[in-house]
Each structure stands twice: as C-alpha cells, then as structure tokens.
Amino acid sequence: MTILVTGAAGFIGSHFCVSALQQGLDLVLLDNLENSSIKVLKIIEELSGVAPVFEQVDVRDKDALVAVFDKYSIDAVVHFAGYKAVGESSADPLMYYRNNVAGSINLLEAMKEQGVHKLVFSSSATVYGEPEFNPYTELHRKQPFNPYGQTKSMMEDMMRDLCDSDSQFSMISLRYFNPIGAHVSGKLGEDPKGIPNNLMPFVTKVAVGELKELGVFGDDYDTVDGTGVRDYIHVMDLAVGHIKAINYLSDNRGFEAVNLGAGKGYSVLQLIETFERLNNVKIPFVIKPRREGDLAAYWADATKAKQLLGWQTELGLDDMVRDSWAWQSANPNGYSDN
Ligand SMILES: NC(=O)c1ccc[n+]([C@@H]2O[C@H](COP(=O)([O-])OP(=O)(O)OC[C@H]3O[C@@H](n4cnc5c(N)ncnc54)[C@H](O)[C@@H]3O)[C@@H](O)[C@H]2O)c1
C-alpha cells in the first residue's frame, strides 16, 4: 500500500513519516516547504532507516498534484498540509480558505479522478467552539468561531458528502487536541517560523533564551489555578493514531470523525511547573489579560478512538515536556544554521 503524505515535512507530518516508515509503510512525501525545512527529509531517513521519496508540490497547484498521482500508484492519502495559526486566519481569512479549503478540494478531486478512496485528515478540536459540555465527544455540535476552525469544519463536511455520494470512499477526520513533544532522539521537533502561536514552542524558546518571558493569558478562569486548561497529546502518540486510522480504512467505508486527545486536561501553570521541575530550567512568565477567543478549559473524550481504532495515548505530560526540551536544547535554532 502506497500512501501519499501531504505536509510531510511539517511538525506532525514528519513524526508520522518516521513512525510509518519504521512500520514498513510505503510513503510518498509531499510538501511545498513553506513552513518546514528540506533538512527534515535527511532526519526522517536517519531515524527511520528509509530514504523517503519526496515531491516539492503545492496542493493549491492542481496540475502538479495530479502529476504526483499519475507518477505513483497511490492507495491512500494522509493530508497534513495547510495553515494552522488561529490569529493569522482571522487577519487573512481568504488565505486560509484558499489553502485549507481550495487546496483540499484539489486533493479530493484528484483522488476521485484517480480512484483513490482512502483519506486521513488533520482536523482540530477547534471545530467544536465554545464547550456545551466537557469533555467534548464527537457528537458535540460543531461551531468554530474563527476562520481556521471553519476551514477544518468545511473540509469535514466535504469529506462526509463525498463518502455519502459514493460508497467506495472511506475517510477519517482526526480531531487533534494540543500536540506537543518531539521525537525521543531530540533530532526532530517543532520549529515554528517567527513568534510561536502555541504554548509549548513559546515555553522552549523562553527556556533556551531566545524569548525573554512567557505571557500567560488570563489567571481568572474557573479552573484549578485560574489559567486555561488544555488536553496535551504527544506528537508520537498522534503519529500512531494515524497509522491505526489507515488500518481502519482498509476494512471500513464511509466517513468518521474521531478525537485524538489524552482525555485529561492540564493548566498552563501546571505545564510550566512540570517543565521546570523535570528539565531543571526556569521559565519566567508574566500574567496578561485574557486573549479574545480563548476558551477556559476543554479536553477530549477519547473513547471513540479506543473503540474504533484501538488507539489510546501511551505517553504522558512528563514525556512531552522532556522530549520538547531535548529537541529545543539540542537545536536552539531549530533546523536553521544560525
Ligand atoms: N500543531 C497543532 O497544534 C495542530 C492542531 C490541530 C490540527 N493541526 C493540523 O495538523 C496539520 C499539520 O500541522 P503541523 O503542526 O504539523 O503544521 P506545520 O505547519 O508544521 O506542517 C504543515 C506542513 O504543510 C506544508 N504546507 C502548507 N501549505 C501547503 C500547501 N499548500 N502545499 C503543500 N504543503 C503545504 C508546510 O510547509 C508544512 O510543512 C495542519 O493541517 C494543522 O492545521 C495542527
């Protein structure tokens, strides 16, 4: 079985590729390298022992995408490629709709034209919006309140409609909670360009001295210590979830949305305390006002992932903070040389 992996050089895609290649899966890696480094390919090879096949293609370029399907005999697709910054999506929504929705339509059309019926998609807990109840189950209504979340929700709707229109299709949308951590080797990790949007890369960049202090947005939420609570998931657990999803698609048809989370929440201050204690570094932080659009607390009900895919998290917060720091401390500049 040959799997096309879009966004393969990115944070989550690269960790998936290492796991999947180690499992003996046959992959074609695709990325436009807009938010990733070509160096990742060498590291994937080093860690997996397999030299990956790579195509530098933009999914917004339909002809180039179709040429990849023509060149290889693709059986399934794992679609990571896209933009992911919530704030940026509010500032430039059309850029997000063009890449995450129009790019995904190109992919779905290419799959349909070429008779490729299996897809695993990177969705997000952002599709749920304000929690009506916690933890979120997959039955929670979808009501994203930013363009990024809308793009994920729209793609899910397209996948469902496509599966309803043709019973040969089998597609899974994986709704990630908060992926952090890095490969245990410390050689592969998250390397956001510019000021990070997510908490963990911010923490590691403060720890390494690149940023002066961490801003903690809000300490008056109705949570254990007043700071926001999130469900953190190790990126290697996430990688395994995708392999289980591919296996599921081999024997099943139709559309499913599945939460991938630990089923447990930690506050910002708990994460900082764990990071400082286990890694023996200080994280200076200042409390700032709440950020518009931030939710107080949410975490996953991961029961469906266990029942449907036979997946659950194996790694805990300790592993996440250790591996994130091992990566950042060994690579203070990420993949760049200076
Ligand atoms: N990291 C998170 O916190 C998180 C949470 C939920 C969902 N997701 C989703 O998971 C996916 C992967 O996220 P990530 O954290 O690895 O992000 P990332 O930015 O590290 O990886 C995305 C990759 O896609 C590539 N890419 C972007 N647009 C492309 C295009 N038009 N054509 C080809 N390649 C393109 C980028 O160069 C990058 O290598 C994204 O779809 C994201 O929305 C991420």
Automatic annotation (TrEMBL):
Residues 4-323 form the NAD(P)-binding domain. InterPro entries: NAD(P)-bd_dom, NAD(P)-bd_dom_sf, UDP_G4E. Its EC number is 5.1.3.2. Its cofactor is NAD(+). One of its GO terms (molecular function) is UDP-glucose 4-epimerase activity. It comes from the Bacteria. Keywords: Carbohydrate metabolism, Isomerase, NAD. Homodimer. NCBIfam families: galE, PRK10675.1. This is UDP-glucose 4-epimerase. It comes from Oleispira antarctica RB-8. The lineage of its organism: Bacteria, Pseudomonadati, Pseudomonadota, Gammaproteobacteria, Oceanospirillales. The gene is galE.
